[in-house]
């Protein structure tokens, strides 16, 4: 066997040994796997946290809507008419349910609806509440609904009882996630509504509206 052939044979053997050692080498594989998996795990972790917080806020929005409607429907004063100060207290107490989340992104409205003998539902009075900070009481604002607006399509058919009144609450909350790339950066609007009937009389008067409503 010539010297050249021996050299070629040795080269092939060394190449095969090098390839075998390269294929068997596992140093750094854990770091590579960690680098690949960590971004996915972080997205899953923050996604779970944000989704859980969103569900918690959504539940509180539902409770806020129920409380707004319930407190208003139970109102009884002497004389039996609700004033602005009473509405402020109701809005403030109801939005405090959102704690420990900030109530500032909350939009809340209260309305009284009258269903006439033809089952046409009409707004009698409506007012909105605004919260500027968690430590300050709510303030009243103009509602998006006005007296005289027909809202028959908003009322469940089972509640369209002729010549009856309903207290209608609407609450929406802009939930903004901490980690923008997990959920929508602009936030997710959570909302709910609630209907209750006046508990202490036929209707709930607000600044003597509706006129001519029997209280008992």
Fold and architecture overview:
The chain has 216 residues and is of the alpha+beta class. It has one domain. The chain has helices at 3-24, 29-73, 84-95, and strands at 106-115, 121-130, 139-141, 164-175, 188-196. It has a five-stranded antiparallel beta sheet, with helices on one face. A hairpin with a 5-residue loop joins β1 and β2 (121-130).
How do the helices and strands line up, and which of them pair or pack?
Layout: H1 3-24, H2 29-73, H3 84-95, E1 106-115, E2 121-130, E3 139-141, E4 164-175, E5 188-196
Antiparallel strand pairs: 1-2, 1-4, 2-3, 4-5
Helix pairs in contact: 2-3
Radius of gyration (CA) equals 32 Å
- Write out the strand line-up for the largest beta sheet, numbering strands in chain order: 3-2-1-4-5
Overall mean pLDDT stands at 84
The tally of domains stands at 1
Distance N terminus to C terminus? 120 Å
Helix content: 25-40%
> Structural class of the secondary elements?
alpha+beta
Produce a short descriptive summary:
By secondary structure, the protein is an alpha+beta fold. It is 37% helix and 20% strand.
